[in-house]
Amino acid sequence: MNKLIRFFREYNEKFAIKATIWFGSMGMFWLFVIWSILPVFPVLTPWKDTILYVSAGVVQLAALPLLMVGQNLTGRAAEIRAEADHKMITEEFATMKSMMEELRAMHEDSHQLVQKVAILLDSDYDIHGHIDDIVSRLDRIENELESKENVVP
Predict the structure, then answer these.
(1) Buried b vs exposed e over 15-46: b needs ≥16 C-beta within 10 Å?
(2) Between 20 and 30 A from 81 (CA), which of 22, 36, 124, 131?
(3) Domain range holding 26?
(4) How far from 1 is each of 11, 15, 20, 73, 146, CA to CA, in Å?
(5) How far is residue 4's CA from residue 11's CA, in Å, rounded to a whole number?
């Protein structure tokens, strides 16, 4: 029984969406324009009441609820897409924010190293004892930068 209900629900939803697209087309607009001027032609006078009845009542009574359902379904699909887009953008923003914080920290580390090297070069201090420390720190920063480049698409 659930399969039958699901089948009719899916069928009705597909039909409502297709009907909304069909009723919202320029072809349907021109069809209604032509239909509305049909009573003007004297040849069609015997069917004038039928034409007016169909255009005034039947089309409106059938089309309006159908269009409302179709609009609701397309609106729901748009909301789902917007929600997914928002989630993805929020995640990307958080990733970019953390990457910027890491880059700032690495920049600060490299700036401090450069200042220490400048101080050591300006003084009579024996720099050779600290070269290994400076080189290892610069290698670490370089490795971190390379690993970040591999993460970014």
Answers:
(1) ebbebbeebeeeeeeeeeeeeeeebeeeeeee
(2) 22
(3) 2-151
(4) 15, 21, 28, 24, 59
(5) 10
Report the domain count for the chain.
Answer: 1
H-assigned helices in the chain: 2-23, 26-37, 48-53, 59-122, 131-151
- Do residues 20 and 71 touch, judged by C-beta distance below 8 A? yes
Largest CA distance in the chain: 114
| pLDDT of 116 | 78
Those residues with Cβ within 8 angstroms of residue 44's Cβ, 6 or more apart along the chain or in another chain: 38, 51
Nearest to 22 by CA among 50, 59, 53: 59
* Mean pLDDT, contiguous 10-residue spans, the chain (153 residues): 87 86 85 81 80 74 79 86 94 92 87 79 63 76 76 56
* pTM over 0.70, yes/no: no
How is residue 16 written in tokens? 């409502």
Compute the distance between CA of residue 83 and CA of residue 60 in angstroms, rounded to an integer: 34
Query: What CA–CA distance (Å, rounded) separates 65 from 59?
Result: 11
Q: What is the pLDDT of residue 137?
A: 80
